[in-house]
């Protein structure tokens, strides 16, 4: 698997880059999010994801590991392919996507071209716990409700695993959106 490429930027368009690595030019598919963050530098480093199909090898590139991680989560959902995931990352920032999934905003996910109501619901259902359970270094979580973050942290300090607490805390918060952090922690402790 090709996981990273460092080389000289030869060609640049909103959907594709060509990076020269020691005389070999790699065609790399990118999102508009990555394109907008590219500077005019000639030397470039991208985190990549390689998809091998019967008739093609496609390389997708991202400036940050968090965007690549989100791309991988999106393509893990049934019915969401690499093209759809790239359109999602081109339409919304990774932070907006994470926030929409964490806060169960079906209308935001559905507003992306090519995503219908059922697909949007499936994305939220399958990824909500995964997004909340990922290591904080991988994704920008500033838009995930503060109460959920604080409750999970407090329960970890008490010795419960993040995986164990994430589902319970998320469920309680979705049932009672206005719940305080203290009450959220107490209810979670009753369910653990």
Produce the secondary structure layout:
Layout: E1 4-12, E2 16-21, E3 24-29, H1 32-37, E4 43-52, E5 57-62, H2 65-75, H3 82-91, H4 94-102, H5 106-110, H6 117-133, H7 146-157, H8 162-175, H9 181-191
Antiparallel strand pairs: 1-2, 1-4, 2-3, 4-5
Helix pairs in contact: 2-3, 4-6, 6-8, 7-8, 7-9, 8-9
Which spans of ≥5 residues are poorly predicted at pLDDT below 50? Answer: none
Cross-sheet strand order for the largest sheet: 3-2-1-4-5
Largest sheet: 5 strands, antiparallel
Written as H for each helix and E for each strand, in order along the chain, the element string is EEEHEEHHHHHHHH
CATH superfamily of the largest domain: 5' to 3' exonuclease, C-terminal subdomain
> Which geometry do the CA atoms define?
elongated
Provide the CATH top-level class of the largest domain.
Mainly Alpha
Question: Would you tell me the structural class of the helices and strands?
Answer: alpha+beta
CATH T-level topology of the largest domain: DNA polymerase, domain 1
Residue share in β-strands: 15-25%
What's the N-to-C terminus distance?
40 Å
- In the CATH hierarchy, what is the architecture of the largest domain at level 2? Orthogonal Bundle
Q: What is the number of helices?
A: 9
Mean pLDDT: 84
Structure commentary:
The chain is of the alpha+beta class. The protein has three domains: 4-62, Beta Barrel (OB fold (Dihydrolipoamide Acetyltransferase, E2P)); 65-133, DNA polymerase, domain 1, CATH 1.10.150.20; 146-191, Ubiquitin-associated (UBA) domain (Helicase, Ruva Protein, domain 3). 49% of the residues lie in helices and 19% in strands. It is built from nine helices and five strands, in the order βββαββαααααααα. It has a five-stranded antiparallel sheet, with helices on one face. Helix 2 (65-75) packs across helix 3 and helix 4 crosses helix 6. The mean pLDDT is 84.
């Amino acid at each position: 698997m090709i996981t990273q490429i460092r080389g000289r930027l030869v060609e640049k368009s909103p959907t594709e880059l060509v990076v020269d690595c020691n005389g070999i030019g790699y065609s790399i598919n990118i999102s508009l999010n990555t394109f907008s963050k590219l500077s005019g530098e000639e030397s470039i480093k991208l985190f990549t994801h390689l998809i091998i199909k019967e008739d093609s090898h496609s390389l997708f590139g991202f400036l940050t590991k968090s965007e690549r991680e989100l791309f991988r989560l999106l393509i893990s959902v049934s019915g969401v392919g690499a093209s759809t995931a790239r359109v999602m990352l081109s339409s919304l920032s990774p932070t907006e996507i994470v926030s929409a999934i964490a806060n169960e905003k079906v209308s935001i996910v559905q507003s992306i071209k090519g995503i219908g109501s059922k697909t949007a619901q499936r994305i939220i259902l399958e990824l909500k716990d995964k997004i909340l359970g990922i290591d904080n270094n991988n994704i920008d979580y500033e838009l995930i409700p503060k109460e959920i973050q604080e409750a999970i942290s407090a329960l970890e300090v008490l010795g419960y695993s993040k995986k164990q607490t994430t589902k319970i805390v998320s469920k309680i918060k979705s049932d009672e959106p206005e719940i305080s952090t203290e009450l959220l922690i107490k209810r979670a402790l009753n369910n653990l």
